[in-house]
Amino acid sequence: MENITIKTTINAPIEKVWKYFTEPEFIKQWNNASPDWHTPAASNDLTVGGKFSYTMAAKDDSFSFDFEGIYDDVQENKLISYTIADGRKVEVIFETNDDMVEITETFEAENQNPIEMQRGGWQAILDNFKKLVESSK
What we know:
Blueprint: E1 3-10, H1 14-22, H2 24-30, E2 37-44, E3 51-58, E4 64-75, E5 79-84, E6 89-97, E7 100-108, H3 115-135
Antiparallel strand pairs: 1-7, 2-3, 3-4, 4-5, 5-6, 6-7
Helix pairs in contact: 1-2
């Protein structure tokens, strides 16, 4: 199985980046790959063995699905790794450098969509996250 890696650097302190990445009220604001999608519901038990579930839906209600999984490792302000419901592994590394945080996300590709499409979708979500964190006070 091929791994895909995406990155972004966020101009904000790690405490804010971590909070926005993990708390459902913020997840609902950034977790979409395009403006015609949204996340109407999110739950997150950020503990090893804990479960998360984000409902991703088209704004016109034509389609929705739950993106969910179980946490394998959680190291506050440093690392989150989890297994998606379909068995694929994801690792998110948070590296702090002064008041900047680099996020590196690596995930196992699925077989239904082209690699570039998967990379583009996940990167778009990460870019939304960066935009929200940097634009909010």
